[in-house]
Amino acid sequence: MEDFIFRGILWAALKVALFYYFCRGGAWYMAWKEIEHTADVGFEVETQSLNDLFIEAAFALYGVCYGDISVLRGIRHGSHETIMIDGIDLEELMVSWLNELIYIWESKNVLFIPLHVNVKRGSWHLEADGLFAVYRQIQLPIKAATYGGLVIRGEPRPFLRIFLDV
């Protein structure tokens, strides 16, 4: 009796499988599929001022990409540049800042080393003075800074937690 029930269940399962196979043009159909997930990497920064938060976020980004960046803090030669970025709020300004640094690396093969950053609250405008420096020892390419999991505050102690798409 048990063998008869087992064969009935097996036959029903086979009919369902064949139905889905032929109704989908000969391709097996599933309601879900596995997709690859690229891991993100993140960092946290805490500083005394909002301006320093943006400078340290740049060095944290470079630390993730390049490993040991102690030599970067000592760079004082290179092409002097100014970067200006606008945002609608603090979150957008930070993500735009980091993505601009990634873009500069990808398009010009140089790093922007921020020497001075001025963030205007309310209008959320950033002006950064710094140097373009050649630094080619990339260890982990970053695609973009993301809003997923972003935590940023300007006061009382500026703090940033951000994740980068690798």
TrEMBL record:
Q: Which organism is it from?
A: Aminobacterium colombiense (strain DSM 12261 / ALA-1)
Boundaries of each Archease domain copy? 32-166
User: SUPFAM superfamilies from the entry?
Assistant: MTH1598-like
Classify the source by domain of life. Answer: Bacteria
Any single GO BP term: tRNA processing
Q: Where do the TM regions start and end?
A: 6-23
GO MF terms listed in the record are: metal ion binding
UniProt-listed Pfam families: Archease
Q: Which UniProt keywords apply?
A: Calcium, Membrane, Metal-binding, Transmembrane, Transmembrane helix, tRNA processing
The entry's protein name is Archease domain-containing protein
Record flagged with keyword Membrane: yes
Query: What family name appears in the similarity comment?
Result: Belongs to the archease family.
